[in-house]
Write a structure and sequence with these properties.
Elements: H1 5-15, H2 18-27, E1 31-36, E2 42-48, E3 54-55, E4 66-70, E5 81-84, E6 87-92, E7 98-102, H3 110-117, H4 140-155, E8 161-162, E9 165-171, H5 178-188, E10 193-199, E11 203-209, E12 212-217, E13 220-231, H6 245-264, E14 271-280, E15 283-293, H7 302-310, E16 318-319, H8 321-331, E17 342-346, E18 351-356, E19 360-363, E20 367-373, H9 382-401
Antiparallel strand pairs: 1-2, 1-10, 2-6, 3-5, 4-5, 4-17, 6-7, 8-16, 9-20, 10-11, 11-19, 12-13, 12-18, 13-15, 14-15, 17-18, 19-20
Helix pairs in contact: 1-3, 4-9
């Protein structure tokens, strides 16, 4: 059957109903992603109508347009999941004007699927996984004991820094509307990467991350070191924020990690800007940015190479990487899933933006699970690390509880 893609595109432009589209995709087991880049007003939505996700390592530079997702435990990027942008919709600000792009090479079912949207409007809710069985993992005493074990291992010189994580469950009286929550994230956290994704077998996730893993636009490559956490004081000038020695050292470790990755590939020509204090949601952090002109250094594959070297960063795992990862595998009692992995659009509008999946939660039928972590060094105090995870979890849970 021949497909008139231009007619299908025009039909979508005239009848776009994002809520209807995404609930239908959810019930049909299709993968989709919604996102908004930091400090921008354009919302993007892609739907993979192929029904079969692509898994495994891929070249960022030669990839077809789409959205990439990786869990935390992905060695050499082997567990990446890719959604093709068979349908790509953009909208700007509060306008009801949409632009639609279809991929005629990939999606032979796009036209048929679009036609069905107008017929199936009774399923106006998202299909969500059942809530997980309650566990005792979210326990203050056990987390503090975990942090104490981390500090002891640092004192025994097993590693210099480690990032233990935990999750926090919140039960709900009724199911959430993830699209409405995504819009709330966009409004409340304009300087973060806002995301709402649904992946069959992996779940429905919302996120608000401030941390770039890899960014490429034209010949410019960017990454960042982000560490140190304090709660926001609305009356304080960010230029006057005081940081403790522990927080400064923690951020310096992340910066050194990036520079060591550059050294591994003998890359010496890069710009470094920072550290400086930035606001992200209800928290402030120390930030150092790095930029490379890929044409000037004749390194067109830098994005793919650095993504493999950087993940998992010392900001979400530890330093040195291997002993820290081994320790977490032995002592962390839960699966991080997508938390502290990475995600983002690839080759959409000639740019790639991968973010570390920091402030995030998985959405279930009658509950949500927010994942958080804390950077532990020799100078850490277990009680303060617990409080830091509480502050971080509220970034997402405040959206649910108001």
């Amino acid at each position: 059957m021949s497909v008139n893609y231009e007619q299908a595109r025009l039909d979508l432009v005239q009848h776009v109903d994002l809520h209807n589209m995404l609930t239908q995709a959810s019930h049909q087991g299709l993968a989709f992603a919604c996102w908004r880049l930091p400090n921008e007003s354009t919302t993007h939505v892609i739907i993979d109508t192929g029904g079969q996700l692509q898994k495994g390592k891929r070249s960022l530079e030669s990839s077809s347009p789409g959205f990439l997702v990786s869990p935390f435990a992905s060695e050499a990027r082997s567990e990446e999941v890719f959604m093709n942008a068979d349908i790509h919709i953009t909208s700007t600000g509060d306008t009801k004007t949409f632009d639609v792009t279809l991929d005629p090479k990939r999606s032979t079912t796009a036209n048929e699927w679009i036609g069905q949207l107008q017929q199936n409007k009774d399923q106006n809710y998202f299909k969500l996984d059942q809530s997980p069985v309650k566990t005792t993992d979210d326990n203050k005493a056990s987390f503090i004991h975990f942090v104490e074990d981390c500090i002891e291992a640092i004192q025994n010189e097993q590693f210099k820094k480690i990032v233990p994580s935990r999750y926090k469950d919140q039960t709900l009286d009724q199911s959430l509307d993830p699209l409405a929550q995504f819009k709330l994230i966009c409004d409340r956290y304009p300087s973060s990467f806002a995301s709402f994704i649904a992946l069959p077998g992996i779940g429905t996730w919302l996120g608000a991350s401030p941390e770039v893993l890899v960014q490429m636009h034209g010949n410019i490559f960017k990454t960042m070191a982000l560490a140190g956490t304090q709660r926001v004081n609305p009356d304080q000038d960010l230029r006057e924020v005081a940081w403790t020695q522990k927080e400064i050292e923690e951020q310096a470790m992340v910066s050194r990690y990036i520079i060591n990755c550059f050294k591994k590939i003998r890359l010496r020509e890069f710009e470094e800007n920072g550290p400086k204090t930035i606001k992200a949601a209800n928290l402030i952090h120390l930030l150092t940015e790095y930029e490379v002109n890929m044409a000037a250094v004749n390194f067109p594959q830098l994005g793919s190479v650095m993504a493999e070297l950087l993940h998992p960063t010392s900001a979400v795992c530890g330093m040195p990487l291997v002993p820290a990862m081994d320790f977490l595998r032995a002592h962390e009692q839960h699966d991080r899933e997508l938390y502290s992995g990475y995600l983002g659009p690839v080759n959409i509008q000639d740019a790639t933006h991968l973010f570390v999946n920091l402030r995030c939660m998985r959405i279930f039928d009658r509950s949500v699970r927010a994942f958080v972590g804390a950077g532990v060094t020799e100078g850490s105090q277990p009680e303060k690390e617990w409080l830091e995870t509480e502050y971080k979890s509220q970034t997402m849970l405040d959206l649910i509880t108001g």
